[in-house]
TrEMBL record:
It comes from Cecembia rubra. This is Threonine synthase. NCBIfam families: thrC (TIGR00260). Its EC number is 4.2.3.1. It catalyses: O-phospho-L-homoserine + H2O = L-threonine + phosphate.
């Protein structure tokens, strides 16, 4: 399987090159040249299969030719070593809990897969690699933990000063060793811009082997499709049509769901749910796709004004905007709606949503209301509420008990360097820290 750039379908590279480069030289995102469809027999057996067995088949179809069966199994075993339970919240509404990994957010799946795949692909290489990461909170913690002490890899995390939760910040700034953190005077989109500029800097790339562990990299993006298959395998109400709502920011997660659907998974409708950073819902309602400055919200990890996976979503629908708008429904919610939903769901069901999951829940509920009785719905609960403890406590008027794993992160000492929102300063930092 080769991978093409969304900016030029003729530019095709191997799996290794796509993963090591991260972003195509023309700034496009890599995509599999063909999307393999899983056989009917796979879907007939899926309910009896374990998460890992599902993973072997799906990843085998995508990467098996290049990696072989043994490496595929190693990769999947390393990635899927925690569960993603499907929990019934109310009649016809299920939460896919993606927060049972080491840093309690869905990014753990992609980060673990990415670090393992990079190690496999770099085996025997003399070159060392610098992994650049822009984060609004959760990618940073998952990547830092996934790549911590991996030999030959140095990670540089850029995050917007004062715009990630305290717990998220502690999860990546306290590790040290090969994990370096830069606190940027700006918003998430500035961090993403700085990273992309570094990839375009020819001179710098001649000196340093740079790659990305954001969802722009197929090694971070593709494995996120696995839990959509698993969710369907565990869904009790398969006789109904299925709607899945994805709380979205950079849109890698939704893109991975669409990939799963293109591989044959019977998902009837996707709901793209955002906070007031509503660039994609606006597009789905007929406006042009237009990046905007991001606005701070209580679902801070989704404060993205220039979602980098947009053109990947379009490519998954054959660049057919009408088809994209038909298959994906867009909703957005402000902080007041989000807080109200968190309270209502806790009062009515006892289920505690984090602010991102609450946005996903709201999108799903709105869609189901418009189509009564026809669908069963799943929303992705993308992070543990404890990661946003101060917001959750304030909104719900409770004192949320943190899981031990989160408490552990609070014991370390923050270590981050300040960085102005200026490419020259970032370049100087990278040039001075050549491995
Ligand atoms: C908790 C949480 N929910 C949702 C999202 C949005 O996911 P995506 O960027 O893949 O759209 C993020 C960040 O990516 C996140 O950290
Ligand atoms: N919300 C993200 C932003 C980066 O998303 P990614 O999936 O492209 O890495 C975060 O948690 O940092």
């Amino acid at each position: 399987m080769q991978f093409y750039s969304t900016n030029n379908p003729k530019h095709k590279v191997s799996l290794k090159e796509a993963v090591i480069r991260g972003l195509a030289p023309d700034q496009g995102l890599y995509m599999p040249e063909r999307i393999p469809v899983l056989p009917a027999s796979f879907f007939e057996r899926i309910s009896e299969m374990s998460f890992k067995e599902i993973g072997y088949e799906v990843i085998g179809k995508l990467f098996g030719e290049e990696l072989g069966e043994e490496q595929v199994m190693k990769l999947v075993d390393h990635t899927l070593n925690f569960d993603a339970p499907l929990v019934k919240v109310s009649e016809g509404i299920y939460s896919l809990e993606l927060f049972h990994g080491p840093t309690l957010a869905f990014k753990d799946f992609g980060a673990r897969f990415c670090s393992k795949l990079m190690s496999i692909l770099m085996e025997g290489e003399e070159r060392k690699v610098k992994v650049l990461v822009a984060t609004s909170g959760d990618t940073g913690s998952a990547v830092a933990n996934g790549f911590y002490k991996v030999p030959g890899v140095e990670v540089i995390i850029l995050y917007p000063k004062g715009k990630v939760s305290e717990l998220q910040e502690m999860q990546f700034t306290t590790l040290g060793e090969n994990i370096n953190c830069l606190e940027v005077e700006g918003v998430f989109d500035d961090c993403q811009w700085l990273v992309k500029e570094a990839f375009l800097d020819k001179e710098l790339n001649e000196k340093i082997l740079l790659t990305s562990a954001n969802s722009i990299n197929i090694a971070r993006w593709i494995p996120q499709c696995l839990y959509y298959f698993y969710a369907w395998s565990r869904l009790p109400e398969k006789d109904k049509k299925l709607a899945i709502s994805v709380p979205s920011g950079n849109f890698g997660n939704l893109g991975a769901g669409i990939l799963a659907e293109r591989m044959g998974l019977p998902i009837d409708v996707f709901v793209a749910s955002t906070n007031i950073n509503k660039i994609v819902p606006d597009f789905l309602h007929g406006l042009d796709f237009k990046a905007k400055p991001s606005i701070s919200t209580i679902s801070n990890s989704m404060d993205v004004g220039n979602p980098s996976n947009f053109y990947r979503l379009l490519a998954l629908y054959g660049n057919d905007e009408a088809l994209f708008r038909k298959k994906v429904k867009g909703f957005y919610f402000d902080d007041e709606d989000t807080a109200k939903a968190m309270k209502k769901v806790m009062e009515e069901t006892g289920y505690i949503l984090d602010p991102h999951g609450a946005v996903g829940y709201l999108g799903l509920r709105n869609f189901l209301k418009m189509n009564p009785g026809e669908y069963v719905g799943i929303f992705l609960e993308t992070a543990h509420p404890g990661k946003f403890k101060s917001v959750v406590d304030k909104v719900l008027g409770i004192e949320l008990e943190l899981p031990d794993r989160l408490k552990e992160f609070m014991k370390g000492e923050k270590n981050a360097k300040g960085l102005p929102n200026d490419y020259g300063a970032f370049r100087a930092y990278l040039s001075n820290s050549i491995l």
